[in-house]
């Protein structure tokens, strides 16, 4: 049975979904064009959202930004995310051990979303922040999750998102990507070897929940001259170790593994 959609609410949510880290401000005309919606409808929606603190209007530019109400609601969600709370001590410890940036990512809408982070104290470090989205096929944090998707999920994401080329090392061939994901499943960790950004290398491993499903991944990221073939094995060993410990605290056990021969 199809879910009933209330048009007015759907339109308001479409407006909110336009706001992003890449484009945090929108004007009425911009929204009208982007959503093919009458300006009067856009204005009414924004006025209602502004009254409830979901958006705020810049008095100088007359453009809108997201309001504090969304931050309040988001804080409630983050507070209830056991994964984040469980993983944080390991993230901090891992970052301290290697003096590199460590972040926790989850799958959302065909991309990987960073939900927790400990930055490297070193001046030269990757630009990663909580709320950042990244592609799956060319990041270690993404491939560590993608390797355990079902075939249908994999096909859908590749069809919807494509395999965009970011660097000369980006895998853009589906069959080559499948071989890479098989390798990740065998060794238990993924490597981003200058595949998303030139000069950046990352090592990540998956995190499972009590059912054995991969729900996240943990990644160590840094400049390629600091993370390379000389220390990747050591980093991978530690990342796997901590991810196994996080998974155990999420309820994953050896019995779960035995009961789920195919964890995809």
TrEMBL record:
Q: Does the keyword Amino-acid biosynthesis apply?
A: no
User: What InterPro entries does the annotation carry?
Assistant: GAF-like_dom_sf, HTH_MetabolicPath_Reg, Tscrpt_reg_IclR_C, Tscrpt_reg_IclR_N, WH-like_DNA-bd_sf, WH_DNA-bd_sf
Renumbered to this chain, the signal peptide range is none
This chain's function reads: May be an activator protein for the gylABX operon.
> Which GO-annotated molecular functions does the record name?
DNA binding; DNA-binding transcription factor activity
Single GO biological process annotation from the record: negative regulation of DNA-templated transcription
Which keywords, in A-to-Z order, does the entry hold? DNA-binding, Transcription, Transcription regulation
Every HTH iclR-type domain range:
6-68
* IclR-ED domain boundaries: 69-252
Q: What is this protein called?
A: Glycerol operon regulatory protein
Q: Does the keyword Transcription regulation apply?
A: yes
